[in-house]
Amino acid sequence: MRINTYIDHTILKPTTLISDIEKLCSEAKQYQFAAVCVPPPFIKKAKELLQGSAVKTATVIGFPFGYSAVEAKLAEVLLALVDGADELDIVVNLIALKNNDWEYLANEINYLIPIIKEKNKVVKIIIESGILTDDEIVKCCLLYGVAGIDYLKTSTGYAERGASVQAVKLFRENLPPHVQIKASGGIRDYAFAKELIDAGATRLGCSGSVAIVSGENANSEY
């Protein structure tokens, strides 16, 4: 398994420095990760640093709590597209979700998806599975599975629980085959990363990506 090809090498802390982005992009090129995931103000810098490589530039929208107004998320989406983002990881409105307002969530995604797809960019929807019930997760799979998204993503990394094998399996059981799964939050070693991939994840959001790849190399029997 070439686990590097599954990884979005990620830094999203609010104190991120330009030097952090430079290091992230350098490592992403060295290890040939799928993408880097950076805060919106660093999209242009990341694109510049990754020029000439196959590594994509991802960013986040409505991060990390998801309760921004749809109009605010739209503004973030438009700016990210102008700045050159290849992939957009959008946090759903978790307040609407926990209050069972599925109409709001449907309107939100239907408002944002066409603009992103018009530019042929990748859409990942973050639902924060660690704080949801199984029933809420299944409802999300049913709603977003037909909305035109590319990935359903487990977590922001900011909730008390991140990715879990159980959640990834539940995603896979309830999503259409064409919708892929991104697991993120708390993935710190190769063994757990492999478990998530075996459960159905096709992308991993990680800040400790180099350690994970090193773990694979140390376990070459896989």
The CATH homologous superfamily is named: Aldolase class I
CATH top level label: Alpha Beta
Beta-strand percent range: 15-25%
Anisotropy-based shape: globular
* Element-by-element helix/strand order: EHEHEHEHHEHEHEHEH
Number of helices: 9
Count the strands? Answer: 8
The total domain count is 1
Largest sheet: 8 strands, parallel, barrel
The CATH architecture: Alpha-Beta Barrel
- Rg measurement, Å: 16 Å
Helical content band = 40-55%
Question: What is the CATH fold-level name?
Answer: TIM Barrel
Characteristics of this structure?
TIM Barrel; cytoplasm; 8-stranded parallel barrel; single chain; alpha/beta; DeoC; 222 residues; EC 4.1.2.4; 16% strand; deoxyribose-phosphate aldolase activity; globular
Structural features, described:
The chain is of the alpha/beta class and 222 residues long. It has one domain (3-218): TIM Barrel. Helix content is 45%, strand content 16%. It contains nine helices and eight strands. The chain has an eight-stranded parallel β-barrel with strand order 1-2-3-4-5-6-7-8, surrounded by seven helices. Helix 7 links the parallel strand 6 and strand 7. Helix 1 (18-31) runs parallel beside helix 2 (43-50), helix 3 (70-83) packs parallel to helix 5 (102-118) and helix 6 (134-145) packs across helix 7 (165-174). It is globular, with a radius of gyration of 16 Å. The chain starts with 6 loop residues before the first strand and ends with a helix.
